[in-house]
Design goal:
By secondary structure, the chain is an alpha+beta fold. The chain has 2 domains: 43-78 and 182-328, no CATH class; 90-171, no CATH class. The chain is 64% helix and 7% strand. The chain has helices spanning 43-81, 96-108, 121-126, 129-132, 159-169, 179-221, 223-231, 236-275, 280-289, 295-328; strands at residues 83-88, 113-118, 145-151, 173-176. The chain has a 4-stranded antiparallel sheet. Helix 1 (43-81) packs antiparallel against helix 6 (179-221).
Length: 329
Amino acid sequence: MSTTEPLEGMADPMHEPWDDLHDAPSIAPAEPLSAAIVPKSSIAGRSLAAVVAIMTFLAALTTGAAMLVLNAASDWRADVGREVTIQVRPLPGRDIEADVKRAAEIARATRGIADVQVFSKDQSAELVEPWLGNGLKLDDLPIPRMIVIKLASSALPDLAALRSALATQVSSASLDDHRRWIERMRTMAGSAVVGGLAVLGLVLAVTMLSVTFATRGAMATNRPTVEVLHYVGATDRFVAGQFQRHFLVLGFKGGAIGGGAAILLFGCLEAASAWHSGTASGAESTALFGSLSIGASGYLAIVAEILVMAIVTAVVSRHTVNRTLESMD
């Protein structure tokens, strides 16, 4: 027997251990985990995105409506503020035509007056027809005569001097600067803003509640995964960050859908208003509702609401996850 040949059952002394590595089966490296803690596509996630879209759409509608009311009220105040009226009442023993003529002369002589338009008896009677109806004989009614005065934009009108001159020289005439109507319009615009803010608050509250319930449902569904992550050393901050990113994407998607639909709606209204601007119905609509345009500031406000919805969704989700993890510990 050769001395170089190893005995049976004994290891070859000339054999190196690393020579076995060539014969060992290859082990593929473990693939990195690509699955997220929270599934990206689920029924609950799609439902939450739909809720956020609806809430964003309602918030955008409320904002746009409030801005339309503010713009219309501002236009009304500007139109009413550029005009004042003089009412000349028929009194026994006075010549109303002479009083009207004298009141118009005083108005033309006042500083800051651009134009004076004297309404005839028939024109003054037409002003009360919407309330009294057509076909009535108004000769026996003491209907006052109207004088419409347009104020100059270059000079400040001296309404106090005009009111004093009318009281002294034409006792049957009175000056109306429409201050009460302007105050009512300002009050109406303020009420619209307060109502819009209240609706926005309710929308945010509903969104926060929906995100809270959706986050708790996702935590309950993925509780075993969260417990395993805690067991291998994952921190609460890491887990909360995963949920926060998931719900941030959902909130942004839902907000973009709802806000985009609102932007499209207001764009169509603005285009329709511009299309009918030359018609009689368009002129009446513009006089009543304004130009139906929320302007660049309105569209920027809707974009801001989309971002706010996404941020609120992410923040509420993270807060809910932290509270849930504290209870699990």
